[in-house]
Amino acid sequence: MARPAAHLATGLGADRRGVAAVEFALIAPVLLLLVAGLIDGSRLIVQTMQVKAAAQAGADYARRNGWDAAGIAGAVTSATSITVSPTPAPAQTTACVSGMTIAPAGGATCAGGGTPGGFITVSAQAPFAPIMPWPGLSQPTTVAAQAVVRLN
């Protein structure tokens, strides 16, 4: 025996089976994007820390051993488990400290009356490949860091 159409519509509106599955299907893509973003963001933070540590390792090598471009570059590349390149190459300059920056020395004395010092700038960089392309993040992305040490 067939049910009347009015009774069928009322029965469907009251049937709550499968609602949780439909709600999960609607929210799952948003949750997956959030998780992927967290994973990519975490990976980028960790890689940035490793590249900074590699640049600092090169500066520490220069502080201990003096100017040795090949040794500094070797310290940068061997500092972490990821592939880090010492690019641009380590540079040695004579400069003066001016506030929180170093400025090239223009003579035998600095503007504040001090003597110029020898500085070594160590750079490090590594490519970063996110799990998925993100708007506003160019592909491929390079993580870079720099460390400066005064020798004398």
Kindly describe this structure:
The chain is elongated. The protein contains 3 helices and 4 strands. The longest helix is centred in the N-terminal third of the chain and has 47 residues. The mean pLDDT is 87. It starts with a helix and ends with a strand. The protein has a 4-stranded antiparallel beta sheet with strand order 2-1-3-4, covered by helices on one side. Helices cover 43% and strands 22% of the residues. It has one domain. Helix 2 packs antiparallel against helix 3. It is an alpha+beta fold and 152 residues long.
What layout of secondary structure does this protein have?
Elements lengths: L4 H10 L4 H47 L3 H9 L13 E8 L2 E4 L12 E12 L12 E10 L2
Antiparallel strand pairs: 1-2, 1-3, 3-4
Salient structural properties:
152 residues, alpha+beta, elongated, four-stranded antiparallel beta sheet
Write a compact overview of the structure shown.
The protein is of the alpha+beta class. Helix content is 43%, strand content 22%. It starts with a helix and ends with a strand.
Mean pLDDT: 87
Question: Unreliable runs, pLDDT <50, ≥5 residues?
Answer: none
Helix and strand sequence: HHHEEEE
Number of domains: 1
Distance from first to last alpha carbon: 100 Å
Largest sheet properties: 4 strands, antiparallel
- State the helicity in percent bands: 40-55%
**Strand arrangement across the biggest beta sheet:** 2-1-3-4
Count of β-strands? 4
> Structural class given helices, strands, pairing?
alpha+beta
Radius of gyration, whole Å: 29 Å
Q: Hey, roughly how much beta strand do the residues contain?
A: 15-25%
